[in-house]
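To the wet lab folks,

You asked to see what we're planning to order before we commit. Fair enough. Below is the target structure as tokens, and below that is the sequence we designed to fit it. If anything looks off to you, flag it before the synthesis order goes out.
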């Protein structure tokens, strides 16, 4: 797919697309490497007594803080959620992040690291699903609320609080 096609699909000009993404590689998720590194490092640096849920939340908050501005984050999420080709690329990267985080979450849950524990996979997938639901809600309300507060609401809903 060309940049022109992506811009047309997103309903923005090519210039707007590059203002938010810089290069074609950024558009297709180049910054995601940095996001993944911050996520992994933040989770790794949490105290041993922090549970998997708290460590994942800290990682999500750290990644959220990487955006240059509220407006930039809102526009990026708008494009990601409303452009099928960008969303597909993001989901693929997200699955890789989940695999990268698996040993860290297994260790926090007392599972054998490298076992592919289904409980650890479920916790990670749920946390990412809640981040996704929070960001879609955040975009839907034009960024009026705090994304991490929305994440907490989503997580509370699935955890039964």
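Sequence we intend to order:
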């Amino acid at each position: 797919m060309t940049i022109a096609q992506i811009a047309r699909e997103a309903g923005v000009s090519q210039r707007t697309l590059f203002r938010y993404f810089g290069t074609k590689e950024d558009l297709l998720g180049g910054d995601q490497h940095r996001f993944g590194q911050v996520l992994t490092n933040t989770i790794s640096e949490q105290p041993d007594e922090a549970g998997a849920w708290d460590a994942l939340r800290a990682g999500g908050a750290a990644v959220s803080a990487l955006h240059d501005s509220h407006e930039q984050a809102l526009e990026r999420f708008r494009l990601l959620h409303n452009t099928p080709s960008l969303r597909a690329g993001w989901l693929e990267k997200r699955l890789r992040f989940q695999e990268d985080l698996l040993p860290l979450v297994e260790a926090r849950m007392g599972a054998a690291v490298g076992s592919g524990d289904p409980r650890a996979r479920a916790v990670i997938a749920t946390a990412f699903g809640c981040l996704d639901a929070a960001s879609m809600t955040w975009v839907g309300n034009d960024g009026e609320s705090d994304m991490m507060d929305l994440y907490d609401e989503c997580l509370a809903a699935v955890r039964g609080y």
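Structural context that might help your review: The longest helix spans residues 84-108. The CA atoms of residues 78 and 149 lie 19 Å apart.

Thanks,
Computational group
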